Every structure is written in structure tokens, then in C-alpha cells.
């Protein structure tokens, strides 16, 4: 029985795992961008339906052949494919965190010095880590000067006691993620991977567009713990 329906069961397991993270939750945002959700739902449903159809076909073939029929079965090692499917179904891995960010210490949030559009009126102005970094390092108009900004991200630590608000930036999915981070001064560090919202003012350093300007610095006035957002990544 197990060998007869093994392939069908594997297809159903994989499809159910995909549906579990995409159709019935927002866990898929840990791995891919929001725009890919419909494709995941369709793929998961197709795999489940294909698995059910295969099981029906196998049952019919077995009934036709009777007890003396000999079915061809795949290698038993194929059952190893069930392990990642079961893990995704019951224990979805978390989003990338501080370990991945620390591997991207030399990433830049943008390329090229130039002027940026004016920031919205009113303080604090909420920016992504990537937006703040771009303006701090490359904006010849110094649009951050005199403004209070609000950044949200997770905590990472430096080797010299410094700490950062960090976000991972993706183009398509978690596999292409790179890190953007902002050094925080004037506030005690929290444990790594703690999600926080930091309000403060830009602290200029280094020459415009130079390595010395990275990572940018924020002088903190408040640091508040927050819940990890459903979509933990910023879009490039």
C-alpha cells in the first residue's frame, strides 16, 4: 500500500506544504515577495490535485491487474523528499536574520551620488533602512539634515560593541537577500534579532559616496520593541 501510493502521497505533501504557507497564512513572505503568492497557490493546488489523480489511477490499475499484477515502484530514497515537505508543513523555517545580515557587511543601499526627492513634511518621517542609507550616503542635497526619522528593523551587533538596525533587501526571494544596516548611537543595544523601531536624527560621517560614510549613523532618541512584521524584507 505504502509503495503503491508513495509518489501520490509525496505530491500531496509537497502541495499541502506550499498551500499551508501561501493560501492559509502569510508565511510565504519569509521566502518570496508578495507578488508571487498567486503562483504558489496555483502550484500547491496543482500538486495536490495531481497527487489525488495519481492515487486514483494507481487504485484502478491495481484493481485491473488483480492480486497477480506487478507494479513498478521508484527507489525508496524518494521518500527522503517527504522530509522537507513535512518540515515546511509543520515547522516552517524563520525569515533570515542577523547571521545572514552579518555576511553582507559591505552592501550598499544605492549607487551613485546625486539629488533625491524632498522628504514628506512633518517629523518623524518614516523611512526604510534602504531609503535612509541611500540618502545618508549618496544625497548631495543632504535631505536628512535637521529631520527626525523613524526606522524599523532587527538588531545586529558589531565586533566593537556597536549595534545596528538591519533589514534584508530582496529582489525576488530570500535566496537573493542582501543586508542594509544603520548604526545606532545613544541607546543601549538589545539582543540580536530583536525587532525595534528607532526614532532619531541623522549623524553625518565620512565623505559623500565614500566607504567612510557606510554604514550610516542615527543618533537615537527612542528605541521601541516591536513585533516582527508579516513581510520582514524590504524591496530593492
Automatic annotation (TrEMBL):
Q: What InterPro entries is this protein classified in?
A: DUF1980, DUF1980_C, UPF0703_membrane_permease
Q: Give the top-rank taxon of the lineage listed in the UniProt record for this protein.
A: Bacteria
Pfam families in the record, alphabetically?
DUF1980_C
**Per the database entry, which stretches of residues form a coiled coil?**
none
Keyword terms: Membrane, Transmembrane, Transmembrane helix
DUF1980 domain sequence ranges: 136-233
Keyword Transmembrane (UniProt): yes
Q: Where are the transmembrane segments?
A: 39-57, 78-96
Protein name per its UniProtKB record? TIGR03943 family protein
Natural source organism:
Streptomyces justiciae
Amino acid at each position: 500500500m505504502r509503495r503503491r501510493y508513495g509518489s501520490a502521497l509525496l505530491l500531496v505533501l509537497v502541495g499541502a506544504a506550499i498551500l499551508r504557507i501561501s493560501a492559509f497564512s502569510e508565511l510565504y513572505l519569509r521566502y518570496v515577495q508578495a507578488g508571487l503568492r498567486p503562483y504558489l497557490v496555483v502550484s500547491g493546488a496543482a500538486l495536490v490535485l495531481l497527487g489525488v489523480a495519481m492515487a486514483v489511477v494507481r487504485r484502478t490499475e491495481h484493481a485491473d491487474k488483480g492480486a497477480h499484477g506487478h507494479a513498478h515502484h521508484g527507489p525508496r530514497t524518494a521518500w527522503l523528499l517527504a522530509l522537507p515537505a513535512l518540515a515546511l508543513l509543520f515547522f516552517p523555517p524563520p525569515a533570515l536574520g542577523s547571521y545572514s545580515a552579518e555576511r553582507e557587511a559591505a552592501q550598499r543601499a544605492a549607487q551613485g551620488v546625486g539629488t533625491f526627492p524632498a522628504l514628506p513634511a512633518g517629523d518623524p518621517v518614516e523611512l526604510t533602512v534602504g531609503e535612509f542609507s541611500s540618502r545618508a550616503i549618496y544625497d548631495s542635497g543632504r535631505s536628512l539634515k535637521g529631520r527626525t526619522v523613524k526606522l524599523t528593523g532587527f538588531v545586529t551587533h558589531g565586533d566593537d560593541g556597536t549595534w545596528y538596525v538591519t533589514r534584508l533587501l530582496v529582489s525576488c526571494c530570500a535566496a537573493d537577500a542582501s543586508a542594509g544596516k544603520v548604526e545606532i548611537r545613544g541607546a543601549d543595544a538589545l539582543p540580536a534579532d530583536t525587532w525595534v523601531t528607532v526614532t532619531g536624527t541623522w549623524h553625518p560621517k565620512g565623505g559623500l559616496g565614500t566607504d567612510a560614510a557606510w554604514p550610516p549613523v542615527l543618533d537615537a532618541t527612542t528605541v521601541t520593541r516591536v513585533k516582527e512584521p508579516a513581510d520582514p524584507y524590504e524591496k530593492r
